[in-house]
Amino acid sequence: MFVELQKGMGLQPGTFNAVIAHETVVISMINSNADLQRYLFLFIGGNYSRILSGVHRTATNFDVQRAFTAHQLFTCLTTASHTFVFVEHDATLYDGAWDMITPISSALLEISRESTVILYSPTLDRAFRALIRDANRVYFLSVPEELKRGNSYRPVHCCCSSVCQNEKQKTLERWSVV
What we know:
This protein is an alpha/beta fold. The chain contains 7 helices and 8 strands.
């Protein structure tokens, strides 16, 4: 099952993918992709999530787990049995637990044999760079032009069709892989 999240960005089954992008890009990718709503989807967040509040939770197969330490993240990963595993990177998990980088990176690679794994971060930091060494693909997604110009672009956060029709939602084809 090949899932195209954006033109030029496809996720192959059984791969470990790293994505560096603005939050609105990732929220829109998750919300607008019907394929991701069809399969078992696990969202793992850390101490603070930048995107979870914007993700529609209308799919019945959308699970959320929170990891407040690197050890809890490792446990979430080793017990995951979903088709898609989305991990929102939180660098604070590794404060005082740098020794967990290698086991977590290995766990991401291991579960990618059975699932499609996405490790997401809005920026590159030391921990994220160490985690993605074994990734099959690394995607740097550009910021939409609307955000660069400072327009009032907002991702759609609701499920109400009357409100959604009034929003200026842009298509993913305008966002490109850098």
